[in-house]
Amino acid sequence: MEKTMRAVVLDEPGTVDHLQLRVLPVPDPSPGWVRIAVKSFGLNRSELHTRLGLARGVTFPRVLGIEAAGIVDADPDGVLTPGQQVVTMMGGMGRTFDGGYAEYTVVPRSQVIPFHSDVPWETIGAVPETLQTAYGSLTTGLDLQAGQSLLIRGGTSALGLAATALAKDMGATVLATTRNPDRVTALADHGVDHPLVDDGAVAAKVRAIVPEGVDTALELVGTPTLPDTLGATRVHGTVCFTGMLSNHWTVQDFYPIDYLPRGVRLTAYAGEAGDLPAEVLQRCLDRIGAGRLSLGPVHVYRLDQIRDAHQDLEQGRRAGKLVVLVSGP
Q1: Is the dihedral of CA 221, 227, 232, 234 positive or negative?
Q2: Beta-carbon contacts of residue 182 (< 8 Å; ≥ 6 apart)
Q3: Closest listed residue to residue 39, CA positions, set 64, 74, 66, 67
Q4: Where does the Enoyl reductase (ER) domain start and stop, copy by copy (predicted)?
Q5: pTM
Q6: For residues 143 and 194, what is the distance between their CA atoms, to the nearest angstrom?
Q7: What is the DSSP string of 251-291?
Q8: Strands 67-74 and 85-89: what pairing?
Q9: Mean pLDDT, each 10-residue run in order, the chain (329 residues)
């Protein structure tokens, strides 16, 4: 009898009603690929963009999900041992081949990162893509150094909270924004040195704290706030464009000399599984398990609650990471 699994399928872009929980055959891995029994997965703006029809290069029908955490179920090449804890992300997951919104997923071995941890799966599911992006943004994107100041635009997002935790761990002073005044205390409790209410113009507020402007800035909202973020950054400071919470990521009629403040550097970051060193993942999980690090609150759903989770993601109802727990230990 053919082995089956539950998976969330998107036949075409649309509302949350287009997310269909179906029973599909368990996929078989080809040489060079690995089958993972998914324990949990995090939700990402990328999947929202796919559902809304904003993502490029996606083929349908498609099982969504650009990341997953679980255990190795099968490796036809015998490189990874069944039962090994792993995470995977990116590389076309949920876009050009089926992703993590399922009980099993098959991915290239090159994008599988092994680890060992007793941390609960719902916590692990919040880590892979968020950690990869936050770590890459702060290191490759900004070259953040101890003692520098960092502005995070979109501070209560899962990525913003993770970036705060890593930046504080690196010895930076963190300023972070939220559009919701009720979340200012949550930012402070998470370690943000200077929480700011974002009314669309925070550069003046930033310079009231850091008169010359911040050393570095992480733009997670998108192009609508990017000019103001650039204006909050000092000469020879760096802004890294990473997130698109606003769903706007292009600049119309871009004229660099007029758009960019004199001497302020603008870069960007987007990464893959290979950009997250295994030792960085392991250290993060070890510190989370020891209670010495938190990437922010985690909101847990079941697979049959995927529409609720997507609705919460789209409406920005939750601060922190949304995670679907597929199965227990």
Answers
A1: positive
A2: none
A3: 67
A4: 14-324
A5: 0.93
A6: 21
A7: -TT--HHHHSPTT-EEEE----GGGS-HHHHHHHHHHHHTT
A8: antiparallel
A9: 93 96 97 98 94 91 98 97 97 96 98 98 97 97 98 95 96 97 95 96 97 98 95 98 85 91 97 95 96 94 97 92 87
Q: Is residue 56 packed enough to be buried (19+ CB in 10 Å), middle (13-18) or exposed (0-12)?
A: exposed
Nearest to 74 by CA among 13, 125, 33, 110: 33
Residue with tokens 């993972």: 36
C-alpha–C-alpha distance, residues 71 and 207, integer Å: 48
Both tokens of residue 165? 């935790």
Two structure tokens written together for 329: 């230990």
Joined tokens for residue 201: 């113009």
Those residues with Cβ within 8 angstroms of residue 107's Cβ, 6 or more apart along the chain or in another chain: 33, 34, 36, 68, 88, 91, 93, 97
Count the alpha carbons within 13 Å of 218 in the hemisphere toward its beta carbon.
38
Location of structure tokens 């402070």: 188
